[in-house]
Write a structure and sequence with these properties.
It is a single chain. The protein is α+β, with helices and mostly antiparallel strands. It has one domain: Double Stranded RNA Binding Domain. Helix content is 42%, strand content 25%. α2 packs antiparallel against α3. It is globular. The C terminus is likely disordered.
């Protein structure tokens, strides 16, 4: 499954959000925020699929302001015409992430 996520600074921490499932995480570093988000998305999907089965799964998109923020920064950091591309890329990381779901260990 591929989901769209972003990581950005938020005060003295980093905020990570999956805009396709409305799942978020926060941590002191971008890497930790991304790892926490991946775990939160994984646990959310395992819970939903385990409770309702795959046929009961329906995405629950993030609110429009978060989706707009994702697309704004995604476009800004991906265009070659952007003079501030490097600086913007350091502030914000928007990408698609492939999540491999596997059964939880013992």
């Amino acid at each position: 499954m591929t989901v769209r996520v972003f990581v950005r600074p938020h005060g003295d921490h980093y905020f990570a959000c999956c805009i396709d499932l409305n799942v978020a995480a926060e941590a002191p570093t971008p890497e930790e925020a991304q790892a926490k988000l991946k775990e939160a998305v994984h646990n959310y999907l395992l819970t939903v699929v385990g409770r309702e089965g795959a046929s009961g799964f329906r995405p629950r998109p993030a609110p429009l302001p978060l989706k707009a923020e994702y697309w704004y920064w995604r476009i800004l950091t991906s265009t070659r015409l952007c003079q501030h591309r490097q600086r913007a890329s350091r502030k914000f990381d928007a990408y698609k992430q492939n999540l491999a779901l596997s059964p939880a260990g013992p």
